[in-house]
Amino acid sequence: MSSSSEKVQTRSQRSKWIIIGSVIGLLGLIAIGVGVGVGVSKNNSKNSSKTSSDTANGATSNSSSNGNPVQSDPNDPSTFEKDPNLHQSFYALAYTPAGSQLPNCTNSLEDVIEDIQVMSQLTKTVRLYGADCNQSALVLEAIKQTKVDMQVYLANYPTPDDSTAYTRQRDEIKAAIQTYGTDHIAGVTVGNEFMLNYLDANGATDPNSAIGAQGAAILIADINDTRSTLSEMNLSKTLPVGNSDAGSYFNTQVLEAVDYGMANVHPWFANVTVQTAAAWTAEFFEETNVQPAALLPNTPKMYIAETGWPTFSSDAGNANNGASDASEANLQIFLDTFVCQANQNGTGYFFFEFKDEPWKDAEFGGVEGWWGLFHSNRTLKRIQLPNCVLN
Ligand SMILES: *[C@@H]1O[C@H](CO)[C@@H](O)[C@H](O)[C@H]1NC(C)=O
Ligand SMILES: *[C@@H]1O[C@H](CO)[C@@H](O)[C@H](O)[C@H]1NC(C)=O
Ligand SMILES: *[C@@H]1O[C@H](CO)[C@@H](O)[C@H](O)[C@H]1NC(C)=O
Ligand SMILES: *[C@@H]1O[C@H](CO)[C@@H](O)[C@H](O)[C@H]1NC(C)=O
Ligand SMILES: *[C@@H]1O[C@H](CO)[C@@H](O)[C@H](O)[C@H]1NC(C)=O
Ligand SMILES: *[C@@H]1O[C@H](CO)[C@@H](O)[C@H](O)[C@H]1NC(C)=O
Ligand SMILES: *[C@@H]1O[C@H](CO)[C@@H](O)[C@H](O)[C@H]1NC(C)=O
Ligand SMILES: *[C@@H]1O[C@H](CO)[C@@H](O)[C@H](O)[C@H]1NC(C)=O
User: Fold this and answer.
1) Is the CB of 234 under 6 A from ligand 6?
2) pTM of the model as a whole
3) Polar residues composition bias: which ranges (predicted)?
4) From the CB of 271, is ligand 7 less than 6 Å away?
5) What digits encode the pLDDT tens for the residues 195-240?
């Protein structure tokens, strides 16, 4: 394994602990995380012409780069004001509604509506990571009320050591489909870093080893069960079923069981410079994911499930990856070198991520909570968003 893929693994291993840890002390942690967030970045109050960066710095307009969109009819979420500084240039975004981790679900429809109002000005597609805390229904209800042209990949986040996690989320997804129909659902993703977690828990690293095959059998049973569930709803031809994992952790039989695969590809954790990050991401994804998938009989469509650049670290030790800093300036470089180029190349990617996640920072520190294009309060960071509108 190259050092690059080891770092991709590291990122993913942290993600596992994020999820497991999320069950502990969530409410208090969010409060702490918000406190940390507020101390991090001061907006200056420059107030001049209306370019993206001026708005990001200056907080002059009352539209979405400045927090919560204004509705001309307060009772109709579809009447939100569009922000001229936002452009529908992203293929897709990675998204988790705040407060969507068990046991204490603190998410709200109001909050998700505001997220959707902002995200719909950046992209037509988002992906979720799991289905706990009613998040599938919340997102679909928000799309309905805002009347935006958006699709969501619903997701089931099974864990190897708890078989009830899969069925619990399957039933939430099923109920959401029954309520909202499929018009705004792009697919159902079963498994997030399942193979990585399984291998890690069993002291292995090769997804196609004997231990990998054991983990794959559990995951494929869940994938098959989701197909059966959709089939009983007469939706097996309507909704594709996929899987997401760290870029180096796809088991071949798992890929043969899905319609699409989503791969985390993180230049930050590969310790490459931000200047080479976009090219590294494109090459890693092509060689590790696209080419192998194209050789399989079912030719699953491959996407980049996560890529991005952190803007801050809560500790000095993670303030850079050995090659470049976590900073808004470097996020800007990655945006400028990746987004429009990937669009032109026809790469399907989910930019990581929509907004900062204070609970991750409170739980894990380092850069984990600081990958958003927006602060957790939906104020745009000091960045200029790419303008290469996708059709
Ligand atoms: C969840 O909420 C319950 C009831 O309010 C509380 O007793 C418990 O400590 C909370 N757990 C966490 C992890 O926040
Ligand atoms: C949003 O959060 C950022 C970062 O903590 C802060 O600088 C900004 O003032 C906040 N904006 C609003 C409108 O609260
Ligand atoms: C702010 O909101 C008010 C009330 O909805 C509106 O009249 C005004 O045009 C908005 N200003 C900007 C800069 O968007
Ligand atoms: C889930 O969210 C939807 C949309 O807001 C709501 O209608 C439904 O009551 C919620 N279900 C639960 C169990 O909270
Ligand atoms: C999953 O479904 C495929 C196709 O029907 C089948 O060949 C395979 O044996 C099933 N695997 C498991 C683990 O259920
Ligand atoms: C699925 O299609 C079959 C055959 O057309 C029909 O009998 C059945 O009621 C449908 N089931 C659902 C859940 O729509
Ligand atoms: C990557 O960078 C991190 C942070 O500086 C460092 O801890 C780690 O050892 C580096 N890994 C490699 C393989 O260079
Ligand atoms: C786009 O494709 C070119 C040519 O293959 C490649 O050099 C570049 O790295 C790709 N960039 C992205 C962001 O996909």
Assistant:
1) yes
2) 0.85
3) 69-78
4) yes
5) 999 999 999 999 999 999 999 999 999 999 999 999 999 999 999 9
